[in-house]
Amino acid sequence: MKEKSKSKVARTKEAGPKDTPRNGAQVITDFLNSVGTEVIFGYPGGAVIPLYDALYDSGLRHILTRHEQGAIHAADGYARASGKVGVVFATSGPGATNLVTGLATAHMDSVPILAITGQVPTTSLGSDSFQEADIYGISIPITKYNYLVKDPNQLPTILAEAHYLARSGRPGPILVDVPKDIQTTLITAKAGPLDIPGQNNHCGSDPHQLEAMIEALTLSQRPVMYLGGGATITGAGPEILTLAERLDMAVVTTLQAKGVFSDRHPLSLGLPGMHGSKYANLAINESDLIVGLGVRFDDRVVGNVRRFAPMARILHVDIDPAEIGKRLPVDIAVIGDLKDVLTKILAKIKKSSRPQWRHRINELRQLYPMEIPVANGTLKPQGVIRALSDHLKGQAVVVTDVGQHQMWAAQYFQCEQPRHFLSSGGLGTMGYGLPAAIGAQLARPDRTVVLIVGDGGFQMNIQELATVMENQLPIKILLINNGCLGMVRQWQQFFFNRRYSSTVFNYNPDFVALAKVYGLWAKKISKPNEVDRAVKDLMKTTGPALLEVEVALEENVLPMIPAGQGQTDFFEGEEGAQ
C-alpha cells in the first residue's frame, strides 16, 4: 500500500505539461488516459520496459496477471461485461504469442480488445533477435486489424485508428506491435483525422430491405426470432422485447445473446441447437420465418444446412455483409446496425397476435420440459446450477469456462439482463473462465460475479487465483468436478464405444486445499442434500470463494443433436434423452 501511495506522489510531481514532447511509451499511456481507459491487464518483459516505466507515472490502473493468456482473457471478460474496449499489454516473442488464443477467442465472438505488444528495435526486425516473433504476421487471421509501428510519428494516429476499429461496426481485437526504440523516441506529432473506408456509412437504411422485412414479419404465422451476439453488442434488448411481444414471436438465444431476452419471459425458448431444448429446436423446425438478428448461423445451431427450418424463409439482419449467406441461403438480408434497424421497423410495423403459434409453443414446452435429472443419491450438476440460479435471481454476472458445465449453465441458469452471461462461444476456449471472471469483476464491481468451471478448464489458468487474491476480487467459483474432460468423454461414450482415450484424469489435486493455500474460502460437496446449504455458504462469503461439486464421471449433457444432423434428430443416449 505504501508503494502505491508513493507512486501517486511521483505522478503528481513528475507529470509535465501536455505540450512537452513525449516518448512513444508516454504517447501510448496518454492516449489510453484520453479515451477513458479504466484498467489494463498485462505482463511485462524486456521489450515493454519503457512502456511499463511510462505506466508507473500514468495514473492508469494495471492488473498484473500470472500469464499473458490470463491477461488477454481478463481483458476479454472486462470488455464483454462493460461493453468497453479491453486493453492488454505483453512483451515481444513468447509474451506476444501467449496472446494468440485470446485474440482468436475475441475475434470469433466479436469482442473489442486493444492489444499492445512490445517488439525488438526496428533495426533488429527480421534478424531473429532475442525474443523476436512476427506477431504482426501471426495475428493477421485472428484480429480485425493489426499494425507494426515503424514510424514514430505515425503512432498517435495508429492508436486512434486502432481504438476506433476495435469498438466500431462489428467489434473485434486489434493488435499494435510497437518496437522498443519507438517507445523511447520523442514524438511531437499528433493524431491526424481518421480516414477509414466505410466509417461514415449509414447501413440499414435501404427502404427496400426494410419493407421486405416488414412484409415478411407481417405475413408470418409461426415466426422464431434467433438472437446472436450482435443483439448484445448493439444494446438492442428493448427493441427486441417490443418486437417479440408486438408480433407474438418465439425467441431463441445463443450463448452470446443470453440475457438480452429474459429467460423467464413466456416467449423465451432459450438455447437452440446441439444442446438446446427440444422445444426450441422443434419450434425452429415448425417455423415459417426465422428472424436471425446479429447471428452467424453457426454449425452448432444450424446442424444440417439442408434440413434447417425446412418450412421457413430466412431473414438475416447483420452489420457484417460477410455473414450474409455464409452458411445457408438467405431470403431477405438487411445490412446494418441491429438497434437502428429495429427502431425503424418498430416505427412502421403494427401489432398482430398469433394465438395458435403461442399455443403450440406452450404445448411444446409442456411436452418436452427441461427437467432436472433424478438424483438417485448422486449429486446432479444441473440441480446445483438451478439452485444457484434461483438463489441469485438474475442479478449476478455469470462467467463459464468451456465444456459440459458450460452447456448445463446455458440450459439451467436463468438470465435476466444482457452482458450477464460471458462464455467463449465460437472458439470454445478452455481456460477462459477464471481470467474472464477477473475482468468481469473489475468491470462490474457493483455485481456479484460467479464463475462456473470444470476441473479441466480450471487447471488451464489456475495460476490466476493469485491475481484474484492480490486484488481481493470477491469472485464466487462453482467448480464442477467429474474427474475428466467431460464433453470429449461424452462423445467417446456415445460414438466411440466408451473408449476413453486420454479424457479421464488419473490424478487431480485437492482443489479445496489448493484454493485454501491461495487464500480462498473453499468447501466440497458430493451429496444432493448438501446443495442448498452449500450454495448459501458460498454466496454469503464476503471475499473470493470456491465450492467444489463432485459429480459422476458419466453425467451427460442432454438433449443432444449430433453434429451435422437436423433439428429433430435427438440422440437418445444410453440412458435416454429428455
Overall pLDDT metric = 93
Number of helices: 24
Number of strands: 20
- Summing up helix and strand content along with how strands pair, one would put the structural category as alpha/beta
Strand content: 15-25%
What would the keywords be for this entry?
578 residues, alpha/beta, Rossmann fold, 3 domains, six-stranded parallel sheet, 24 helices, globular
What would you note in describing this structure?
With 578 residues, this protein is α/β, with parallel strands linked by helices. The chain folds into three domains: 2-187, Rossmann fold (3-Layer(aba) Sandwich), CATH 3.40.50; 207-367, Rossmann fold (3-Layer(aba) Sandwich), CATH 3.40.50.1220; 381-550, Thiamin diphosphate (ThDP)-binding fold, Pyr/PP domains (Rossmann fold). Helix content is 38%, strand content 16%. It contains 24 helices and 20 strands. The strands form four sheets. Strands 3-2-4-5-7-6 form a six-stranded parallel β-sheet, with helices on both faces. Helix 4 runs parallel beside helix 6 (100-108). It is globular, with a radius of gyration of 25 Å. The chain starts with a helix and ends in a 28-residue tail after the last strand. Residues 1-17 have low confidence and may be disordered.
